[in-house]
Amino acid sequence: MFVFSASRHAFAAALIVAGFAQPALAQTYPSQNITIVVAFPAGGLADIVGRLVATMLSDRLKHNVVVENRGGAGGNLGAKAVATAEPNGYTLLTTTSALAVNATASKNKGFEMSDLRPVAIVAFSPDVIAVHPSNPAKNLKEFIANAKTKSFTYGSAGVGTGPYVGAEYFFREVAKVKYVQVPYQGGAPAIADVLGNHVDAVVLTLPPVTPHILSGALRGIGVAAEKRNAAIPDVPTYGEMGYPNVYSGSWVGFFAPGKTPDAIVTKLNAEINAVMKEPDSLEKLKKAGFDPLVQNVAEADAYFKRDVEQWGKMVKAIGFSN
Q1: Where residue 188 falls among pLDDT bands split at 50, 70, 90?
Q2: N or C: which end of the chain has fewer CB within 10 A?
Q3: Which fold, 126-241?
Q4: Closest to 166 (Cα-Cα) out of 73, 97, 93, 257
Protein backbone atom coordinates (compact mmCIF):
# COMPACT_ATOMS: atom_id res chain seq x y z
CA MET A 1 0.00 0.00 0.00
CA PHE A 2 2.80 2.39 0.87
CA VAL A 3 4.56 1.85 -2.46
CA PHE A 4 1.34 2.38 -4.42
CA SER A 5 0.55 5.55 -2.47
CA ALA A 6 4.02 7.00 -3.08
CA SER A 7 3.76 6.28 -6.79
CA ARG A 8 0.36 7.88 -6.91
CA HIS A 9 1.58 11.02 -5.16
CA ALA A 10 4.64 11.18 -7.42
CA PHE A 11 2.40 10.94 -10.47
CA ALA A 12 0.13 13.67 -9.13
CA ALA A 13 3.13 15.87 -8.43
CA ALA A 14 4.38 15.33 -11.97
CA LEU A 15 1.02 16.42 -13.34
CA ILE A 16 1.12 19.58 -11.24
CA VAL A 17 4.64 20.39 -12.44
CA ALA A 18 3.60 19.79 -16.06
CA GLY A 19 0.62 22.05 -15.56
CA PHE A 20 2.84 24.90 -14.37
CA ALA A 21 5.44 24.22 -17.08
CA GLN A 22 3.00 24.81 -19.97
CA PRO A 23 2.26 28.50 -19.23
CA ALA A 24 5.93 29.12 -18.44
CA LEU A 25 6.89 27.60 -21.78
CA ALA A 26 4.48 29.91 -23.59
CA GLN A 27 5.94 32.94 -21.81
CA THR A 28 9.50 32.20 -22.92
CA TYR A 29 8.60 31.18 -26.47
CA PRO A 30 10.01 32.14 -28.88
CA SER A 31 13.63 32.66 -27.88
CA GLN A 32 15.07 32.22 -31.38
CA ASN A 33 14.15 32.59 -35.04
CA ILE A 34 11.31 30.52 -36.52
CA THR A 35 11.37 28.79 -39.90
CA ILE A 36 8.18 28.44 -41.90
CA VAL A 37 8.46 25.72 -44.53
CA VAL A 38 6.16 26.51 -47.45
CA ALA A 39 5.26 23.22 -49.13
CA PHE A 40 5.14 24.78 -52.62
CA PRO A 41 7.39 27.01 -54.76
CA ALA A 42 7.45 30.79 -54.54
CA GLY A 43 4.49 32.65 -56.02
CA GLY A 44 1.86 30.03 -55.24
CA LEU A 45 -1.09 30.09 -52.88
CA ALA A 46 0.73 28.93 -49.75
CA ASP A 47 3.67 31.21 -50.48
CA ILE A 48 1.49 34.33 -50.75
CA VAL A 49 -0.10 33.79 -47.35
CA GLY A 50 2.99 32.32 -45.72
CA ARG A 51 5.12 35.37 -46.52
CA LEU A 52 2.41 37.81 -45.49
CA VAL A 53 2.01 36.15 -42.10
CA ALA A 54 5.78 35.65 -41.64
CA THR A 55 6.51 39.34 -42.13
CA MET A 56 3.93 40.50 -39.60
CA LEU A 57 4.63 37.65 -37.19
CA SER A 58 8.29 38.68 -37.06
CA ASP A 59 7.25 42.08 -35.74
CA ARG A 60 4.86 40.62 -33.18
CA LEU A 61 7.23 37.94 -31.84
CA LYS A 62 10.39 40.09 -31.98
CA HIS A 63 12.26 37.30 -33.76
CA ASN A 64 12.80 36.67 -37.45
CA VAL A 65 10.34 34.33 -39.11
CA VAL A 66 12.16 32.90 -42.14
CA VAL A 67 10.29 31.41 -45.11
CA GLU A 68 11.80 28.38 -46.81
CA ASN A 69 10.12 27.05 -49.97
CA ARG A 70 10.33 23.28 -50.24
CA GLY A 71 8.03 22.19 -53.06
CA GLY A 72 7.56 18.76 -54.53
CA ALA A 73 5.42 15.62 -54.34
CA GLY A 74 2.20 17.61 -54.18
CA GLY A 75 3.22 19.27 -50.94
CA ASN A 76 4.45 16.10 -49.24
CA LEU A 77 8.15 16.99 -49.22
CA GLY A 78 7.60 20.15 -47.20
CA ALA A 79 5.08 18.43 -44.96
CA LYS A 80 7.50 15.59 -44.23
CA ALA A 81 10.27 18.04 -43.34
CA VAL A 82 8.06 19.59 -40.66
CA ALA A 83 6.44 16.32 -39.53
CA THR A 84 9.91 14.95 -38.70
CA ALA A 85 11.26 18.19 -37.20
CA GLU A 86 11.84 18.81 -33.51
CA PRO A 87 8.42 19.60 -31.93
CA ASN A 88 9.56 22.82 -30.30
CA GLY A 89 7.63 25.46 -32.28
CA TYR A 90 10.59 26.64 -34.31
CA THR A 91 9.74 24.76 -37.51
CA LEU A 92 6.25 25.28 -38.95
CA LEU A 93 4.51 24.27 -42.15
CA THR A 94 2.45 26.43 -44.46
CA THR A 95 0.41 24.32 -46.83
CA THR A 96 -2.95 24.03 -48.56
CA SER A 97 -5.82 21.61 -48.99
CA ALA A 98 -3.24 19.38 -50.70
CA LEU A 99 -2.44 18.03 -47.24
CA ALA A 100 -6.06 16.93 -46.79
CA VAL A 101 -6.05 15.41 -50.29
CA ASN A 102 -2.84 13.51 -49.58
CA ALA A 103 -4.30 12.02 -46.42
CA THR A 104 -6.26 9.67 -48.69
CA ALA A 105 -4.35 9.81 -51.96
CA SER A 106 -0.74 9.36 -50.85
CA LYS A 107 0.23 5.91 -49.66
CA ASN A 108 3.93 6.63 -49.07
CA LYS A 109 4.06 10.17 -47.70
CA GLY A 110 6.89 9.42 -45.29
CA PHE A 111 4.78 10.64 -42.38
CA GLU A 112 1.39 10.13 -40.76
CA MET A 113 -1.30 12.78 -40.38
CA SER A 114 -0.83 12.49 -36.62
CA ASP A 115 2.76 13.71 -37.11
CA LEU A 116 1.32 17.17 -37.84
CA ARG A 117 -1.16 19.26 -35.89
CA PRO A 118 -3.10 22.29 -37.13
CA VAL A 119 -2.04 25.61 -35.64
CA ALA A 120 -4.34 27.88 -37.66
CA ILE A 121 -6.40 27.71 -40.87
CA VAL A 122 -6.29 31.31 -42.05
CA ALA A 123 -7.77 31.75 -45.53
CA PHE A 124 -9.93 30.07 -48.16
CA SER A 125 -10.33 30.74 -51.88
CA PRO A 126 -12.18 29.02 -54.75
CA ASP A 127 -10.57 27.44 -57.79
CA VAL A 128 -10.74 29.20 -61.16
CA ILE A 129 -10.28 28.10 -64.76
CA ALA A 130 -8.38 30.63 -66.84
CA VAL A 131 -7.29 30.64 -70.48
CA HIS A 132 -5.10 32.73 -72.79
CA PRO A 133 -7.04 35.64 -74.37
CA SER A 134 -6.56 34.05 -77.80
CA ASN A 135 -8.65 31.05 -76.75
CA PRO A 136 -11.95 31.06 -78.68
CA ALA A 137 -13.98 30.18 -75.57
CA LYS A 138 -15.39 33.25 -73.84
CA ASN A 139 -16.74 31.29 -70.88
CA LEU A 140 -16.80 27.82 -69.33
CA LYS A 141 -19.86 26.70 -71.30
CA GLU A 142 -18.11 27.43 -74.60
CA PHE A 143 -14.85 25.89 -73.40
CA ILE A 144 -16.53 22.59 -72.53
CA ALA A 145 -18.51 22.63 -75.79
CA ASN A 146 -15.25 22.99 -77.73
CA ALA A 147 -13.68 20.23 -75.65
CA LYS A 148 -16.40 17.81 -76.73
CA THR A 149 -14.84 17.77 -80.20
CA LYS A 150 -11.18 18.43 -79.43
CA SER A 151 -8.99 17.41 -76.51
CA PHE A 152 -7.31 20.18 -74.52
CA THR A 153 -4.41 20.59 -72.11
CA TYR A 154 -4.59 22.20 -68.70
CA GLY A 155 -1.89 23.09 -66.21
CA SER A 156 -2.12 22.44 -62.49
CA ALA A 157 0.06 23.25 -59.50
CA GLY A 158 0.99 19.59 -59.24
CA VAL A 159 -0.53 16.15 -58.97
CA GLY A 160 -2.30 15.75 -55.66
CA THR A 161 -3.08 19.41 -55.01
CA GLY A 162 -6.65 20.48 -54.31
CA PRO A 163 -7.12 22.27 -57.66
CA TYR A 164 -5.83 19.18 -59.46
CA VAL A 165 -8.33 16.86 -57.76
CA GLY A 166 -11.14 19.38 -58.23
CA ALA A 167 -10.31 19.78 -61.93
CA GLU A 168 -10.02 16.05 -62.52
CA TYR A 169 -13.35 15.49 -60.82
CA PHE A 170 -15.05 18.22 -62.86
CA PHE A 171 -13.57 17.40 -66.27
CA ARG A 172 -13.85 13.62 -65.89
CA GLU A 173 -16.93 13.01 -63.77
CA VAL A 174 -19.09 16.06 -64.50
CA ALA A 175 -18.20 17.53 -67.91
CA LYS A 176 -16.97 14.19 -69.31
CA VAL A 177 -14.44 15.63 -71.76
CA LYS A 178 -11.04 14.49 -73.06
CA TYR A 179 -7.99 16.35 -71.84
CA VAL A 180 -4.33 16.11 -70.87
CA GLN A 181 -3.25 17.35 -67.46
CA VAL A 182 0.19 19.02 -67.33
CA PRO A 183 1.55 19.07 -63.77
CA TYR A 184 3.90 21.78 -62.50
CA GLN A 185 5.74 22.22 -59.23
CA GLY A 186 3.54 25.07 -58.11
CA GLY A 187 1.15 27.66 -59.47
CA ALA A 188 3.73 30.13 -60.81
CA PRO A 189 5.20 27.88 -63.54
CA ALA A 190 1.70 26.75 -64.54
CA ILE A 191 0.64 30.38 -64.95
CA ALA A 192 3.79 31.16 -66.94
CA ASP A 193 2.93 28.47 -69.47
CA VAL A 194 -0.68 29.52 -69.96
CA LEU A 195 0.51 33.13 -70.33
CA GLY A 196 2.85 31.86 -73.04
CA ASN A 197 -0.05 29.92 -74.61
CA HIS A 198 1.79 26.62 -74.14
CA VAL A 199 -1.22 25.01 -72.43
CA ASP A 200 -4.89 25.67 -73.20
CA ALA A 201 -5.97 26.42 -69.65
CA VAL A 202 -4.87 26.56 -66.07
CA VAL A 203 -6.86 25.44 -63.02
CA LEU A 204 -5.62 26.98 -59.79
CA THR A 205 -6.94 28.51 -56.63
CA LEU A 206 -7.73 32.14 -57.36
CA PRO A 207 -5.09 34.38 -55.69
CA PRO A 208 -2.06 33.80 -57.94
CA VAL A 209 -4.28 34.09 -61.04
CA THR A 210 -6.22 37.19 -59.96
CA PRO A 211 -3.77 39.88 -61.15
CA HIS A 212 -3.47 38.25 -64.58
CA ILE A 213 -7.26 38.13 -64.99
CA LEU A 214 -7.63 41.73 -63.89
CA SER A 215 -4.91 42.89 -66.29
CA GLY A 216 -6.43 40.99 -69.21
CA ALA A 217 -3.38 38.78 -69.63
CA LEU A 218 -5.66 35.81 -68.90
CA ARG A 219 -9.40 35.29 -69.25
CA GLY A 220 -11.21 33.75 -66.30
CA ILE A 221 -13.98 31.49 -67.59
CA GLY A 222 -15.36 29.91 -64.43
CA VAL A 223 -15.14 29.99 -60.64
CA ALA A 224 -15.87 26.78 -58.72
CA ALA A 225 -17.89 28.52 -56.02
CA GLU A 226 -21.47 29.06 -54.96
CA LYS A 227 -21.25 32.77 -55.77
CA ARG A 228 -18.95 35.05 -57.75
CA ASN A 229 -15.77 36.19 -56.08
CA ALA A 230 -15.45 39.88 -55.18
CA ALA A 231 -11.90 40.03 -56.55
CA ILE A 232 -13.03 39.03 -60.07
CA PRO A 233 -16.77 39.83 -60.16
CA ASP A 234 -17.05 39.48 -63.95
CA VAL A 235 -16.10 35.80 -63.95
CA PRO A 236 -19.20 33.55 -63.69
CA THR A 237 -19.54 30.53 -61.43
CA TYR A 238 -19.68 26.97 -62.70
CA GLY A 239 -23.35 26.97 -61.72
CA GLU A 240 -24.10 29.95 -63.97
CA MET A 241 -22.51 28.04 -66.83
CA GLY A 242 -24.75 25.01 -66.36
CA TYR A 243 -22.79 23.01 -63.78
CA PRO A 244 -24.52 23.56 -60.42
CA ASN A 245 -23.25 22.27 -57.09
CA VAL A 246 -19.66 21.91 -58.28
CA TYR A 247 -17.45 23.57 -55.69
CA SER A 248 -13.70 23.36 -55.32
CA GLY A 249 -11.22 25.54 -53.53
CA SER A 250 -8.34 25.59 -51.12
CA TRP A 251 -7.48 26.83 -47.69
CA VAL A 252 -4.07 27.89 -46.44
CA GLY A 253 -3.04 26.72 -43.00
CA PHE A 254 -0.16 26.55 -40.57
CA PHE A 255 0.88 23.27 -38.97
CA ALA A 256 3.40 22.19 -36.34
CA PRO A 257 4.99 18.81 -35.61
CA GLY A 258 2.44 16.58 -33.92
CA LYS A 259 4.03 16.58 -30.46
CA THR A 260 4.46 20.35 -30.20
CA PRO A 261 3.27 21.41 -26.71
CA ASP A 262 -0.25 22.79 -26.44
CA ALA A 263 0.98 26.04 -24.91
CA ILE A 264 3.16 26.83 -27.93
CA VAL A 265 0.45 25.91 -30.42
CA THR A 266 -2.10 28.03 -28.56
CA LYS A 267 0.26 31.01 -28.51
CA LEU A 268 1.06 30.67 -32.22
CA ASN A 269 -2.64 30.39 -33.01
CA ALA A 270 -3.37 33.61 -31.11
CA GLU A 271 -0.50 35.49 -32.78
CA ILE A 272 -1.39 34.30 -36.29
CA ASN A 273 -5.05 35.15 -35.76
CA ALA A 274 -4.02 38.61 -34.60
CA VAL A 275 -2.14 39.04 -37.87
CA MET A 276 -5.21 37.95 -39.82
CA LYS A 277 -7.33 40.60 -38.07
CA GLU A 278 -5.03 43.42 -39.12
CA PRO A 279 -6.78 45.71 -41.64
CA ASP A 280 -3.76 45.56 -43.95
CA SER A 281 -3.83 41.74 -43.99
CA LEU A 282 -7.58 41.64 -44.59
CA GLU A 283 -7.39 44.10 -47.48
CA LYS A 284 -4.51 42.29 -49.21
CA LEU A 285 -6.12 38.87 -48.89
CA LYS A 286 -9.57 39.97 -50.06
CA LYS A 287 -8.14 41.79 -53.08
CA ALA A 288 -6.27 38.61 -54.01
CA GLY A 289 -9.42 36.49 -53.80
CA PHE A 290 -9.18 35.03 -50.31
CA ASP A 291 -11.81 34.85 -47.61
CA PRO A 292 -9.82 35.32 -44.36
CA LEU A 293 -10.58 32.87 -41.54
CA VAL A 294 -10.02 33.22 -37.80
CA GLN A 295 -10.30 29.99 -35.80
CA ASN A 296 -9.00 28.80 -32.45
CA VAL A 297 -6.94 25.60 -32.24
CA ALA A 298 -9.93 23.31 -31.67
CA GLU A 299 -11.86 24.88 -34.56
CA ALA A 300 -8.87 24.58 -36.88
CA ASP A 301 -8.46 20.93 -35.95
CA ALA A 302 -12.14 20.17 -36.61
CA TYR A 303 -12.04 22.10 -39.91
CA PHE A 304 -9.04 20.08 -41.07
CA LYS A 305 -10.60 16.74 -40.13
CA ARG A 306 -13.80 17.59 -42.06
CA ASP A 307 -11.73 18.59 -45.07
CA VAL A 308 -9.78 15.33 -44.99
CA GLU A 309 -13.09 13.46 -45.11
CA GLN A 310 -14.55 15.58 -47.94
CA TRP A 311 -11.47 15.41 -50.15
CA GLY A 312 -11.20 11.71 -49.42
CA LYS A 313 -14.58 11.13 -51.06
CA MET A 314 -13.55 13.10 -54.16
CA VAL A 315 -10.19 11.34 -54.40
CA LYS A 316 -11.90 7.96 -54.31
CA ALA A 317 -14.44 9.06 -56.94
CA ILE A 318 -11.70 9.76 -59.49
CA GLY A 319 -9.60 6.78 -58.41
CA PHE A 320 -6.55 8.93 -57.66
CA SER A 321 -3.52 7.82 -55.66
CA ASN A 322 0.11 8.79 -55.63
Answers
A1: confident
A2: N
A3: D-Maltodextrin-Binding Protein; domain 2 (3.40.190)
A4: 97
